[in-house]
Amino acid sequence: MPVRGDRGKTIRRANTMVRKERSQGVVPMIKKEKRKTTAWVVYSKVITFWAPGILLSKLGRMPDPGMQQAWREKIALVSLIVLVCAAVVYLTIFLAMTFCPQSVAKTQSNIIPISRDAVTGIVGIKGIAYNFTNSNLGSRVNFKLTGGIDLTPYFNVPIPDICKSTKLKDFRAAQFNVCVQENGNGGCPLGNPDDAEKNYKVEKMPDRPIGYDWSDVESGYFVVNGMVINMTPYLLAVGRTSSGDLLDQAIFAAANGKLVDASILFQRTSNVKAAVDCLAARFGAGQLAKDTPGCFAVNLFNYIALVVIGGIVLTRFFMAVVFQYFLSWQLVRRPPRSKVRPLSYNAAAPWAGKKPQTGAAAGGLGKGDDDELYTIMLVTCYSEGEDSIRGTCDSLCATDFSDSHKLLFIVADGIIKGSGNDQSTPDICLGLIEQDESFRDPEPCSYLAVAAGSKQHNMAKVYCGHYRVGNHRTPCLVVVKCGTPDEQDAPKPGNRGKRDSQMILMNFFSNVIHNDRMVPLEYDLFRKVHYLMNVTPDLFEIVLMVDADTKVYPDSLRLLVNCMNNDQLIMGLCGETKIANKRDSWVTAIQVFEYYISHHLSKAFESVFGGVTCLPGCFCMYRIKARKGDDWVPILSKPAICQEYSQNVVETLHEKNLLLLGEDRFLTTLMLRNFPTRKMMFMPQAICKTVVPDEFKVLLSQRRRWINSTVHNLMELVLVRNLCGTFCLSMQFSIFLDLVGTVALPVAIVLTYILIVRACMTNYNSVSAYLPLAMLILVLFLPAVLIFITTRKWVYVAWMFVYLLALPIWNLVLPTYAYWHFDDFSWGETRKVAGEGKDKGGHGDGAGTFDTNAVPRKRWEDYERKRRRSIKRKEREKQHADDSSSYQAAMVDDSASAGLLKNSVEDSMYYESHPGYSFMGDSSSGSVHGSSGTLPGAYGQQARYNQQYEMQNYPPQANAGGAGYYGDYSQEQQQQGAAHYGSYDDYPQQGGYADQSIYDYQDQQQQQQQQQPSRQRPGGPRDYH
User: Fold this and answer.
1) Residue 284: beta bridge partners?
2) CA-atom Rg of the chain in angstroms
3) Whole-model pTM?
4) 857 contacts 523 by C-beta, under 8 angstroms
């Protein structure tokens, strides 16, 4: 029984993190059944009603209806982005102008409150503050002046023009003269208030109104719409209300009822409403020193926004630091023996339990460590130069990982020549390896490509050999997509795109793991992988995907595999990508900090939740299959993922942005949607360097693809409800904020500069005035703290200022250009081919009709049976030619069981005398175990097998480099590994596990077969020790 591994050191998926009641099934993003009329299609046509089809065809040069619909959907998307940007602008700038006008906000900020602590030397006249410290005002009144007193009743205030309106002629209070002896002040002894400064030497304080608290509103005072009215002189002068006067009724009701806020009493009629301004002009004492409801709401919104945005920024920052210092180091450590699981294979497969191939090329590879998982290193090539491809392959093969457990898998995407290259890409790739003489001229094999029309049929050649660098001699396969004979005169025969190159490997492992039907290319790959590695392909568990312009550090592969061993829930990993040409031009210089912060802040934060939303295709690792208890489950090789990732019918703009522009992000999205409880992680200790665009036009083209792909993938991920977390502390909420932040980038930079200007002009006299400045400093300069904590390299602070200077490019130029080119699905200037023009259709466009009979699909045992019959037929023909006199005609057995019978005398005689032809070495048994059933193929097509498929014979390879050579290398590697990662002798021995070899399973399988010679029952995979 295998030992169950830990669930890892990151946040566990407990019931509080993943709510079962909201879990949902995986809905395919790319639906095969297309609905012609949807709400989105209707909206796109409504928003573009002004552009009929004939106008787009004639003037827009878009004769194809699909191009026209893509353009309409682009306009619809841009309209939604404009709405989001407008909402951000309104909430940031115009919300305050609407509910808290500048005049109100300015008045509130300049109010002099009299409140409980009276302001010494300040009095109020008509609601405005006056300083009477040096005045002679005290000698003209019969009472002692105190701070904050309202002196308006002592002045003869002229009746303002607003009170002489015809609407107010029936209201006594509008024009009544209050300067009578009965007003309580003995008339108006101080005269005209406009002459107060000259007559009494008081100093007016402009724009500084007197402010009242609710407790300062005494009898005879009341508040109307935030203005404090002092009606005491009027109430004493008139004595009682006037009959039929609505305004008088409201005044006396407010004064006698002791209703402090009397605003509602003055809303009875339009004339009464108009009289409020008249009362404020004649009897106004000041303003209420409280925010209006609108200003209060605006301030509340600003505080909430600051808390949310600041909380998100700080939370991301601290979680990134925690992950960097505590979590990531626990995952990259060499795993203890308790976490190393035995290798798994498909016990129900027909090749299970057989001996490794005799005379194989892997005879001199030696044995790897027990914790080294079998790994495929996939390098996809298109138009890169020889130096780039060689540098990538050198770095991969030179990693401190046993050659017996890694296989270099190079895919050349078509017979093309990159711009500036002297050789075609396939010639460059083949020139880098030591080809096996027996496979120097392989036959092209058919497979189903990711394309439309007749381009679904493609052919590829599989070259077999080794890649030598230093003391390493790594097994290597080079797959050259050469195209069918009909497309040899085309500009790029065999080219189907990067996604097709990945699908060659993904479909191959999916069919091998499930023992499903294979295309001829996959059977050829099966035999050559087994020939090179001495193990069947179903033992491979990991695939490392690297672009052809990337160089990985020597310990990167080992560190990533350690993470896979330490946490079985990890299904995908990526390391840190650094820039190799950072000083080539200003274009590369502005990208240095952008790469750094996207890894150490964004991806580190997402790794705490195990939900990195994008594993970069230049350097990432996926788990092909994962152990789950005593069983295994397919991960990258899951048929649902292979089927959706290999979609060849891509019609809508959304689907094309998903599949044609950002394959890497789309694959990550697929993995998260299909396995929301598993983890996608970032490991900062695993490092690679890549070459970035050094010209602005290339950067513009690259970021157009990345930004558009990001928007459309986030639109899919935000709908996945059962991601880790709950509410604001969830990956779904974080993805939503990323989506809004991405589409609002153009206005974000504009608002940033507006905020900077306002920060320079603001008079900081309250806490709320500091909020925008605090938010600005938090967003711009917190990354500098992260730099110091994570790297302690001050040079990155300099790169940060270079990045900040280029913010208009990152936040305005690039996103605006990308959004307007939503309907451009080409790779543009990123990877140029000699003589290539611009193709806006992207990969996958094709004409003609695909013939399903062109690509046969059979099971492995069917291919093997045919191959063995062919070998026997050729041997009999040879015997007949050597000894025609004694030749006896032999009947060729074409039955279904031919070549697969137990203890076949002909088989044993032939394979013992010709070991090089033996594929599985049937020494004791030639039976094929029954399959436990199959899953539907990735393409779901029923191919008719009416074509013959002949595989060439594989003779043995001489010595394959020598065992002594690799024996020395193995010891040196073990010493280096022990010094760098720790020796396995330090770990406790468990049941003799330390002496276990990965190949011991073959001897045990033979013993089991001898003890139980009966046919094995179909079932799940078994563990071997």
Assistant:
1) 229
2) 40
3) 0.73
4) no
